[in-house]
């Protein structure tokens, strides 16, 4: 027998947003003075004011507000490491109505499958989730990696995420993922030609590499740089699964992700500098064409790269949003910045110039028509306050030279395309889930206007600016707990 629905799960009452300007995220056109009617959490009508369309609805006048689909953070880590309540609340209060969780575990997959993954009511929706990250720790051999792909596929993972696996492991694992029809994506494996990887089926590249992997392919000195990457020592690990390896790995990763650059050796930094010095826009454009041909997705996570490459910049240590984070977390971030400050001035200059090249690369990918998504890489990365960091990502994409419309698409319609949900999400139209952001200023004029959030609709439930402020304040006063 099905239990009676709990009150909090009940669909909100019908709602009509009156007098709004609807933004078409596909062509950038605007329709002013519209009604958006919402019933049972779904948009039922969009058009000129029509009192007959939903007579029982609560009518909220939002005269002049711009309506866009809710934002998707397509690279985030709120679940699995600590109590996610505060992080999820901050995301929602910033207009994030959906997120792609970028690491998983057998536990998380089982909880989701059993309907036991209870997210708080103030939370964006979980859009997709992998199993445990495939690394040399848990996938040291090809056989083990293939088994992991099978296990995660049958446990219900939406995709397989890899990082730092060796070429010997990568290709068999990719072949198995292809056979099962599950996307494999993540960090480009070092020592493999990027084009060979995407032609083998690598579905998406995160963080523009990371590191030197993709920059090497944009270099006039590609052969030599690639040879150096290939001869770099790979971690020596026992080819058997250790007990609790995932939990152990998670602890290692939690420390590492704060700022992975802090582990750089002088030789790594010299190699980065060579990649910067020999960066070639023509080669980058050719590579971009290869991504277009292969249908490869990119999630640049520029804000992650900026906080990493410029970790000791005062823009971060003086960030007013730090008040939303637990003091212990901020302490860890300050520690990471201090450690970063111990690199020489020349080394830090190399890191900074890498970031400038990555901005140029992002623009080249965009110009070529590479499919891209917006992602912040918050929770766990230094200086990344959940929710706010996606807005910072919008700012960095604008800094790279992307148009406001393109940035809006990356966080809305492109996310729906990636997820295969364009008929139910990613636009403001009848039949779509009523996940919406209401903006004070025209988002097509300036990407900064994507942050002029005056209301968020989540599955048909409207939260006004005052409610969003209350949610954020609640997190800031309880931050030691989250
Ligand atoms: Zn990540």
Q: What's the CATH topology name of the largest domain?
A: TIM Barrel
The CATH class of the largest domain is Alpha Beta
Global geometry: globular
CATH architecture of the largest domain: Alpha-Beta Barrel
Distance between the termini: 36 Å
Low-confidence stretches: 1-8
Number of strands: 16
CATH superfamily of the largest domain: Metal-dependent hydrolases
What is the count of structural domains? Answer: 2
Q: How many distinct helices?
A: 18
CA-atom Rg in angstroms: 22 Å
The set of bound ligands, ions and cofactors reads: zinc ion
- Please state the average pLDDT score: 92
Give the DSSP E fraction (strand runs of 2 or more residues): 15-25%
Strand count, sense and barrel status of the largest sheet are: 8 strands, mixed
Helix content: 40-55%
Structural class: alpha/beta
**Quaternary:** single chain
Describe the structure.
The protein is of the alpha/beta class. The chain folds into two domains: 7-70 and 424-481, Urease, subunit C, domain 1, CATH 2.30.40.10; 71-419, Metal-dependent hydrolases (TIM Barrel), CATH 3.20.20.140. The chain contains 18 helices and 16 strands. It has helices spanning 85-93, 106-113, 142-154, 167-180, 194-200, 213-217, 222-231, 245-256, 266-277, 281-294, 302-309, 314-317, 327-340, 345-368, 388-399, 404-411, 413-419, 465-478, and strands at 15-23, 30-39, 42-48, 58-61, 66-69, 71-76, 96-101, 125-128, 160-162, 184-186, 204-206, 297-299, 371-372, 436-439, 453-458, 461-464. The strands form three sheets. Strands 1, 2, 3, 4, 5, 14, 15 and 16 form an eight-stranded mixed beta sheet that branches. A hairpin with a 2-residue loop joins strand 2 (30-39) and strand 3 (42-48). Helix 3 packs parallel to helix 4 and helix 10 (281-294) crosses helix 14 (345-368). The protein is globular, with a radius of gyration of 22 Å. Residues 1-8 have low confidence and may be disordered. It comes from Mycolicibacterium madagascariense. Keywords: Hydrolase. It holds the Pfam family Amidohydro_1.
